[in-house]
Amino acid sequence: MKQISNIEILGGGPAGLYTAILARKLLPNVRVRVTEQNAEGATFGFGVVFSKEALEFLRQDDPETHQLLRPLMESWEDITLNLPSGSVTLDGVGFTAISRLKLIEVLKDRAVNLGVTIRFNKALKSLDELEADIVIGADGLHSLMRRTLETKFKPKIEYFNNHFAWFGANIPFDTLTQTFIETAKGALNAHHYRFSPTLSTFIVECDGQTFKSLGFDKMDENKSAATCTKLFKKSLQGADLITNNSIWRQFPKLWCESWVDGRNVLIGDAAHTSHFSIGSGTRLAMEDAIALVHALKDNDDIDEALTVYEKHRQPIASKIVGAANTSALWYEKFAEKMQLEPMDFAYDYLTRSGRMTDERLHRIAPKFAKNYKSFKVRDTDLFN
Ligand SMILES: Cc1cc2nc3c(=O)[nH]c(=O)nc-3n(C[C@H](O)[C@H](O)[C@H](O)COP(=O)(O)OP(=O)(O)OC[C@H]3O[C@@H](n4cnc5c(N)ncnc54)[C@H](O)[C@@H]3O)c2cc1C
Q1: Residue span of the structural domain in which 185 resides
Q2: Which of 9, 33, 35, 48 most suits a substitution to test ligand 1, by most atoms within 8 Å of the C-beta?
Q3: How many whole angstroms from 173 Cα to the centroid of ligand 1?
Q4: Residue 213 and residue 192 share a domain
Q5: Is there a domain that residue 72 lies in?
Q6: Three-state SS annotation for 70-133
Q7: Are residues 265 and 341 in the same domain?
Q8: How many folded domains does the chain comprise?
Q9: Domain check: are 38 and 118 in the same one?
Q10: How much is the average pLDDT of 195-208?
Q11: For a Cys-Cys bond, which of 20, 105, 179, 280 suits 116, CB 3.0-4.6 Å?
């Protein structure tokens, strides 16, 4: 790619930093600068989870980053579903998880070592402050680039009905665990898994009525954390919930019709969101980065490269985002589904994104698939 001499990246999250790394590797003559509003070493959230093979995709383009991340990751096989009426294990699914902060630290150090300039503590107010051959909007959900060029990117944003708060917990859970509890004021779910030897992510979710009945709308984050600690006392086994801007929110369903406007390009959460229940947002963001930098490397003309990026990447991201949206809708009905037998609940949970066939179920959770089959036979026998 001869025409590019510099790239400006807005946002130093996973999408922005990974784009910077790959750009320096694959387009070594191009100057790359990242602008990030947060201070160095600050971010939102706790750990993020990926499927077992996720991050393997990094190995191909940047084995060094993959090698740096690997030892920082926790991994395990199973999902545990805890219901008031019993627990079910979904064996063999396979996950890895990492602290979001550590992920960003590794990406940042690697980018700097490859010659990327990073400006921290700089919240950009206008796109006019950036001048480059290509400006990449990797600035997340509240993207300045997307808002500035809204008529070009044509975003559609709605919010799922459930409310959630993202806490941490000072206890390492064995597996990815979904705990569903009943209270006099409604049902709640916690989505929890370890992301370091001592810490776990702990996301609490409930419908709007339960959210109000429990008074979360009037609590600050510390009071919310204390209330959730009490509600999930059994799962937390004496551990406390930790906050990091753990305000209650409704998850956004965002999709931009277009990701390119002239030399401005959107990637990651700035272009699309993916509900946390399928753990794909970070991976999607980094895969956008891979698609974009490869398109720039493989095409001599910048406009052509950006068109290739959008055309190639949108249908792939759209499939995952569709599955995430379907999964998010399942969570809006979890209170009803809690009336099911635990085994039926587990089957319903596993098949929630609409992408699970019986054959796939047998492949990813063989013991559960076998047990469920015998359970259904017994169940049917009772009525014959
Ligand atoms: C509760 C919850 C749980 C999640 N769990 C998972 C999970 O388990 N697995 C997973 O893969 N994904 C998960 N995600 C999704 C994941 O966090 C996002 O998809 C991912 O962070 C997207 O990366 P990004 O780089 O596009 O955006 P971000 O990570 O949002 O980064 C954008 C960056 O841009 C900066 N920025 C924004 N505006 C400006 C400005 N004007 N000037 C300068 N800097 C700016 C921000 O400070 C930020 O650092 C979860 C999300 C939530 C809400």
Answers
A1: 163-242
A2: 48
A3: 24
A4: yes
A5: no
A6: HHHCEEECCEEEEECCEEEEECCCCEEEEEHHHHHHHHHHHHHHCCCEEECCCCCCCHHHCCCC
A7: no
A8: 3
A9: yes
A10: 97
A11: 20
